[in-house]
Amino acid sequence: MITQTATPTTHESKQLLTVKDMALTAMFAVLIAVCSWISIPTAVPFTMQTFAVFCAVSMLGGKRGFFAVLVYILLGAVGIPVFSGFKGGLGVLLGATGGYIIGFLVIPALCLLTEKLFGKKLIVEILSMIVGLTLCYAFGTAWFIKVYTDTKGDMTLANALKFCVLPFILWDMLKLALAIVLSTAVKKRVRI
User: Which residues cross the membrane (predicted)?
Assistant: First the structure.
């Protein structure tokens, strides 16, 4: 009598995200929400969102950081009050400042791309976050001008930059530096 033994196949399907990845993604989506509630209301609210986005990208990397930001945006889109001022819903995303929120996705996407091209190096991470933030500003400002002009009247690029970008540059650079220092310290002690 001949018996056959089943040979295990080595074909392993790759998961997009593991359970650990999903838990970290959810945790950082919540961190972004909590940091968005810490705000000073202005034309574009001054919040700690960018700090949380930088932390998510620095601690989790581009892929998981992208999903954390995406989950945060989707939670807000369905009406959960995760945006500044405890607001939620598509109206916020389609409003004048919605472009800045959607533009947050550029930061981890660019970091993911640079990770693939240059590896995970601190200087590459910092530069990609600065470029990503600049692209977020550009997208958000174009969105702001379009929505503001359609709903309230003319808005020039100079005025949009004066209200929506220039007051935030220094603070966002400080938040980036703080996020990098904090993330580096955490990554030395905890394997994320």
Answer: 22-44, 65-86, 92-114, 126-145, 165-186
